[in-house]
Each structure stands twice: as C-alpha cells, then as structure tokens.
Amino acid sequence: MEQSPNPTTNKKPTLVVVHQGFDSPGGVSTSCLNQIAILLENYRIALITDQSHKDREDYPKELEIIRLRVPKLTWLHRLGHVPRQWAFIQMVKSHLQQYENSHDIAAVIFHSHPAAALLAKSLRKVGVRSILVVHGDIFERPAGTYGRQLTTWYRWATPRAYRRVDAIFSLSPAMQSLAQRWAEGNTQTYLVPNSIDPGEIGIFQSATACGMKADTTQDKTLDVIECDHTHLVKHHSEPAQAIPDLLFVGRIEPLKGVSNLLEAVAQLHHQGRHVTLLCVGAIKPAYELELKTQLKQLEIESAVQFAPPVPRSQLGDLYRNCSILVVPSLSEPQATVILEGMAAGCAIVASETGGNVMMLDHGISGLLFPATDVAALARCLGQLIDNSSAREGLGAAACQKFQSKFSREALAPKLLEAVAATLR
After folding, report:
1. Which helix (H) or strand (E) holds 320?
2. CA of 294: how far to CAs of 68, 153, 278, 291, in Å?
3. CA–CA separation, 190 and 200 (whole Å)
C-alpha cells in the first residue's frame, strides 16, 4: 500500500472515497475527480484506489490518496475482472477498519455497486454513513454488454447496494428512477448531476461568448493531431485544415453505438453528402478489425479515421474544430463528452437515452434520436451538416445551458447539500 502525504491539518469532517481504477481516463474517474474537487471545500477527503502503471497527476494536492496493491491476475484474462474487484473490496474493508481507528470518518462514498453492496452494512454497524454514486445500472444496459460472469456479479450486487447504503446520488433522472426501484424506505435518493471544469479540456470558459464556439487558447500556437498518418493541423486564429465534419470521442466499443454511426455515415454518402468522421478513443484490436471490416463493406473507408485517446487538455481543440459532435451511445447515464461539447459550444447530436435527455433539449440545445434508429441519426446529421446557422444556434444554446445548469458553480451546491443532508 502506498499513501500520499496529506498537508491538511484542519478539523473538517472526513469523507473516504472508494474508486477502483481512479487513474483511468474514463467518465467515472472524471466524475469522481470533479466531485472530490467540490467536496474539498467543506471536507477532508481520502481516496482509496488501486495502483496503476501510470498514476494521474491532475488531482488536487490536498487530496490524500491511498493506493492498494491489488493482484493483477492477468493470467485469468477476461475472467480476472470479478476476482480483482473482490480482492480490492476486501483490501478496502481491512484498510477502512484501520483508518477508522485514527480518523473519525463521517461517510464513505462508493463509485461502484459491488463495493457498496459488500461494505455498507459493516459501516452502518460502526456509525459510518455510506453513499453510492450511480454511474450506470446493469438492468439498463443492453443484453450482451458484459460477459456472463460480470453480468451475474453486477446483477447480484446492484439491488443489494441500493438497499444497503444510506444515500444514493444519481447522475440523471433515468438513473434515479432505476435506483428507486430497489432502494428501501430509509435510503435517501438525490439527483446530483456531474459537472466539469472547462479548463480541464483547454476551454477558457470566462472568455466564452455563447454565440460562438469557445476559445481554447489565449495565443496563436499551432497544434497537430496525428491520425493514421493524416495530420489534422490547425492554427488557433485561422480556419482548420482537414478537420472532420463529425466527431466521436470516447471508448470505441459496441455500447457506444459506433457501428450505428458508421451506418449513418454510409447513408449520407449514398445521398451524395460525403461527410468525414473522426473517432477518438481507446479501442480493442478485435473490435477495431470488426469496424474496419464494416467500413470496407459500406465503402466509406476513406471517410472515417480512428485515433487514439488524446490528453484531456487537448480535447477542447477537437470540439472547437468539428462541425458536429455525435454521441450515439446505446446506454449513457450522463455522458461526460456531452458536458464537454456543451462547454465548447458544439452542435451535438445524441441518442435519446439516459442522461442525454436531461442535458439536451431537442431542437434547442441539440438534436436527439432513438438510440438504435440509424435512419433517424442520419436525418439529424443531414439537417445540420449543410446548415451552419442551425449548428451555431444549437451550440450557443448548449453552451448557455452548460453555464446555467451544469457548470461546477451551478452544481456544487447540490452535491454539498446532498452530502450534508446524508450526514444529518
């Protein structure tokens, strides 16, 4: 176990945050980090996570981080996920017992159902409150999203977690309604959407005029993004060159609806609208091969590029220079990519699922389509691709809604009040 020094010496109440995989670049970790940044105003925070090959460096320096040496179990391949989670949870249980001896823990915040299901009851016995932040729900995910072992594990843990914790923080109304099906009468439920700091992605929000896309720099530096030997070069004070019409950002996997997006691009090409698409994110080799086979069959190989993930500080450049940000997910509790796109003033086309409906008002701050309806997705893209004024109008409205409803300043009071109410 490695423990970072904690310079905080005040008497703020102590919260412990439990999140396995904190150093990963995904939406759960981003949400966890943003919540921690807000909570540090009123609380002393200790984060319990596991070690990774590369520890993130963008966390607040007053955050105490406790990294547990969890067995990697790589020899189990795909079957190692559940044993790793189990091992992590057992190590967290042991460390919480030790930590409670030297610290007065007010509450433990869990970012996964299994950890909450297995640890919440024992915490209640010693007078420590437990909070579950709901980032997703196995009963809402499409069949086949996970393997049999992982599905069984989550189906066992999810209802037990809802019943055993003292409070549930849901990122969207869709997640809140799912949690309330299982929660017992004494479990408090709160709608606590996630927020982001635009500066994390290189957007200078204070300089943003919501009638145009946000500026991502204060000078005239040159950026180059490499993508399959194609250089997307842009000068911040000049129009971009070779910039894609459509942009997808996130994990490139079946749940994210990328295959449907490729079908929609093909439909547009058949209509004579030769749009280009850039997909930025991590992808497993087997699925990459599957998608490239699909591209060949659809005869749109030259129109679609795949690029690896970029540092979060560079995302603002991507959003600023695309025509349309597309979020075609089959399931989405609250898409961080939509928050980022809204902050950047993007025209956004997203699936009508989960938290997307909460964030975007159809026809006002974005366009929504039924999650599996490829033809509807193509129609939405077609409405915007040749209509710059419509794109600018949607982007401006999205930016305004982000600032008023989803900025850190707007949402911090909700999170702080939900935690305070749980502790009362």
Report:
1. helix 315-321
2. 42, 32, 16, 5
3. 26
- 291-322 pLDDT, tens digit per residue, is 999 999 999 999 999 999 998 889 999 999 99
Q: What is the pLDDT of residue 268?
A: 97
Matching residue, tokens 């499409």: 142
Residue range 143-163, pLDDT digits in tens: 888 889 999 999 999 999 999
Residue 243, both tokens? 């910039």
Region of residue 354 (phi > 0: left; psi between -120 and 50: alpha; otherwise: beta): left
Structure-block tokens of residue 324: 């349309």
Distance CA 137, CA 113 (A): 9
Q: Which amino acid is at 343?
A: A
- Give the CA count within 13 Å in the CB-facing half-sphere of 213: 26
How many helices (H) and strands (E) the chain has is answered by 13, 16
**How distant is the alpha carbon of residue 300 from its chain centre?**
29
pLDDT given for residue 30 in this prediction: 87
**DSSP strand E in 121-182: where?**
129-134, 167-170
The whole-angstrom separation of Cα 306 and Cα 288 is: 9
Residues 224, 96: Cα–Cα separation, whole Å: 46
For residue 24, pLDDT beyond 90: no
Angle subtended by helix axes 374-385 and 258-270, to nearest 10: 60
The predicted structure's pLDDT at residue 224 = 35
Phi, psi of 410, deg, nearest 5: -75, -35
The one-letter amino acid code at 28 reads: V
Specify burial of residue 379 (Cβ count, 10 A radius: 0-12, 13-18, 19+).
middle
Between CA 185 and CA 51 the distance in angstroms is: 37
